[in-house]
TrEMBL record:
GO molecular-function terms, A-Z: ammonium channel activity
Organism: Clohesyomyces aquaticus
Entries under PANTHER family matching the protein: AMMONIUM TRANSPORTER MEP2
Superkingdom, taxonomy of origin: Eukaryota
Transmembrane segments: 18-40, 52-71, 116-135, 142-168, 180-198, 210-230, 242-261, 273-291, 297-317, 338-364, 376-401
Protein name: Ammonium transporter
């Protein structure tokens, strides 16, 4: 018998490898350009460049940190019950090996390079999603430091604990594709971080009108379709469970969008495209921890709750409780990601089927409907760990940047008043005359060293 070719080793399944690379690329497109376009469309014109650039920067910064030390901290050999041993993954002989997650005893039929890339796009989108809570006032310099620190101290711990073979993985907590690791963590961190950064200008908080609804919808469409890779790639194979995950993802998302739109029409008398996008996002988030382990009817039920519970927290609870007034969460990331992620994680404890868990090779035998009622308790325990860890480390990182590194978390008053022109010397729409545009729109010429005559006095923080 001939020896296996180094280009076609015995363990390689070309279909699995092709699907995994495709799924990873779909998730990458959700961040770049999906969320870049969504953010740029959802904010006023003066914040379009900065908002998109925050996402663009995070995507690049996470990748370098990921291959130098963070991947192994999240998916390598266990160092502590909640984190692995950090280290680089850039050696060619290592990249060509069969993919293995050692602490979880998981082996896939594609190379390590594919696994590293696939897991990177999940890490990157977590930071990009969190940025939605900070738009319109976080210092870009502070963001540049925050991204690698939060990835290292927070994301890797959640990923290892739930996916990489850590203590929550071993207890059977179900997080199919990141309802906790990605969405609950980014929603919690975004909410807490918004407190430490401080609020936007009062004028921006009172009138933060999306400058392009069509751009927003384009970004939302990329996000929705890209989620087929987000959830469909997590069986690590082009398997029947991958197909079930893709179908359930779309069922839940559609149901959630319809419920949110129905509530908007009932209470606000008009169907809102912004509301529909929020309902779409909450549906995508809530099905993520459950996608391949629930039946289609379970996806419908999760969609009903994901379209209603975050709607209530955003439009009723968030507006009536004074507690929320201390947190200027720009795009409502707490409601769309933290609340929706918790709802999905809780409901998977009820609706996970024995067949779905078996197909996914999950540690858990299923949820309450499969006779395993204690799964609900473990789901809550897993959520509480992620919430607590993120509250502590997000706060610690923000305070470290502000008080130890002496880098302001919030932009200057002038930057807040002017926006992109003051921060980057660029504007979203220049019409071929960037300097003239800057002068005409904001009274600010980035090539001048004197303060702009038309800008007026910076608005005082209320």
């Amino acid at each position: 018998m001939a020896a296996p070719s180094p280009t076609n080793p015995d363990w390689l399944n070309k279909g699995d490898n092709a699907w995994q690379l495709t799924a990873g690329s779909l998730v990458a497109l959700q961040s770049v350009p999906g969320l870049m376009i969504l953010y740029a469309g959802m904010v006023p014109t003066k914040w379009a460049v900065n908002s998109a650039f925050m996402a663009f920067y995070a995507f690049a910064a996470v990748l370098i940190c990921w291959v130098v030390w963070a991947y192994k901290a999240a998916f390598g050999e266990q160092m502590l019950p909640f984190v692995g041993v950090p280290g680089p993954v850039v050696a060619m002989d290592w990249e060509l090996r069969q993919a293995v997650i050692p602490a979880a005893n998981i082996t896939a039929n594609f190379p390590m390079s594919t696994m590293v890339y696939f897991q990177f796009v999940f890490a990157a989108i977590t930071l990009v999603l969190m940025a939605g809570a900070f738009l319109g006032r976080m210092s870009f310099r502070a963001w540049m430091i925050f991204v690698p620190l939060w990835l290292t101290l927070s994301y890797t711990v959640g990923a290892f604990s739930l996916w990489g073979g850590g203590f929550l993985f071993k207890k059977g907590v179900i997080d199919y594709s990141g309802g906790y690791v990605i969405h609950l963590s980014s929603g919690t961190a975004g909410f807490v971080g918004s407190y430490w950064i401080g609020p936007r200008l009062k004028s921006d908080r009172e009138r933060f009108t999306p400058h392009s609804t069509l751009l927003m919808l384009t970004g939302a469409g990329i996000l929705w379709i890209g989620w087929n890779g987000f959830n469909g790639g997590d069986p690590y194979a082009a398997s029947p469970d991958a197909g079930a995950a893709v179908l359930n993802t779309n069922i839940c998302t559609a149901m959630s969008l319809l419920v949110w739109t129905g509530l908007d029409m009932t209470f606000f008398k008009k169907p809102s495209t912004i509301g529909a996008v929020q309902g779409m996002i909450t549906g995508l988030v809530a099905i993520t921890p459950a996608a391949g382990v629930v039946a289609g009817w379970g996806a419908v039920i999760i969609g009903v709750f994901s379209g209603s519970v975050p709607w209530i927290t955003m439009n009723i609870v968030g507006k009536k409780l004074s507690f929320f007034q201390h947190f200027d969460d720009t795009l409502g990331v707490f409601h769309t990601h933290a609340v929706a992620g918790f709802v999905g994680g809780f409901l998977v404890g009820i609706f996970a089927t024995a067949e779905g868990c078996l197909a996914f090779a999950a540690v858990s035998p299923g949820g309450a409907i499969a006779g395993n009622g204690k799964q609900v308790g473990w789901q809550v325990a897993g959520a509480l760990f992620i919430i607590g860890w993120n509250i502590f480390w997000t706060s610690a990182i923000m305070l470290f940047i502000k008080h130890v590194l002496r880098i302001p978390l919030r932009m200057t008053e002038e930057e807040l008043l002017i926006g992109d022109d003051a921060i980057h010397g660029e504007a979203a729409y220049t019409f071929g005359e960037p300097n003239m545009h800057a002068i005409a729109i904001h009274g600010h010429d980035p090539n001048r060293k004197t303060k702009p005559a038309m800008a007026g006095q910076p608005e005082k923080q209320d």
